[in-house]
């Protein structure tokens, strides 16, 4: 929804060292305003983490802090047999990737939730693995109760690093609280208290709307896989991202002159008028894409500048300290039409616009797929391939959609892949030096796994530049 702010704008930012603190960068799709016209322009807001000294890829950086995680494992009747065995294997794999001083709680849930291992230091991991192996299937799916029990287990953990619930389920919430909107809001409230939520869907029967909403409001990440093997890479991506994070609880507010309208184009949670961004990691960026409408009557004379936007970002450092970044202003000069036309569009802003538009196209395809309109899906795919042909990443995603759409009766798989691909395009963290990654300036093995791009979200592989 468009919004208008009219607060007075400040021009007294305070300086921080960009080598050790995150920084805010603003880029407009054009570097000037056109005189005599109302201007509609997109602005990319990038909250970038500082670079760190290189370490072996996959190795925890020197600044990595102890983590407190809680696994909430679905043990309902639908998980009997192979699904539960695969879920246990995922949990055991995660234990093997934790450090001895990390804390881990384990909760299983079916008709009710049970804490089977408290949030204590992992040590060598053998005891918690035995607890995981003891889990057996039961009846219904009290997903909310399981998640809540896991969040509660982390409430009293006094660790300097992150506290996060990792929810793994193959089904729908059908016991206790089942309303996706209510559950997602509970995730948001716990995130505000410092306990975030990531979700992992397994198979083709889980509720992707619920799982994505929980991660979105819970300030975590959302992943899914057809099998346990498909979730190994997401687990590794998440652990790398957790280790690399330098700021969480990221909040973005903006001010514009009275009369300027603002629309937020990518799908970010908003609470009390403040946008919530994903965690910021070293060498990576969280971002927002805004569309400003500047009425012609607000423009000063040609040659003068107009302060169209000021962005303020705050959050918490990796050790929980409060971080307030310097306000970032955007002042654009007013140019006559001929001079304005010579201002080239910003390539990075255009790329993000393409990715957001592709995500919106995927949501329209998903709606058509869910109502059984296969012809509409094919037509939308054809239109998207033509519209977004200049984006290798989007084309790789669309190629995966085409393969799934060509399989008759595979609506569930198609719907999930479209939902997760759209969420990834809309909000996933990007490399701070994205152009370097895209141009092949870095070998793939030198790029952290959480920054690598994939054309298929539910299966490993298909990495694209």
UniProtKB/TrEMBL annotation:
<dbReference type="InterPro" id="IPR036465">
    <property type="entry name" value="vWFA_dom_sf"/>
</dbReference>
<feature type="domain" description="VWFA">
    <location>
        <begin position="68"/>
        <end position="242"/>
    </location>
</feature>
<dbReference type="InterPro" id="IPR002035">
    <property type="entry name" value="VWF_A"/>
</dbReference>
<protein>
    <submittedName>
        <fullName>VWA domain-containing protein</fullName>
    </submittedName>
</protein>
<dbReference type="InterPro" id="IPR051266">
    <property type="entry name" value="CLCR"/>
</dbReference>
<feature type="region of interest" description="Disordered">
    <location>
        <begin position="1"/>
        <end position="20"/>
    </location>
</feature>
<dbReference type="Pfam" id="PF00092">
    <property type="entry name" value="VWA"/>
</dbReference>
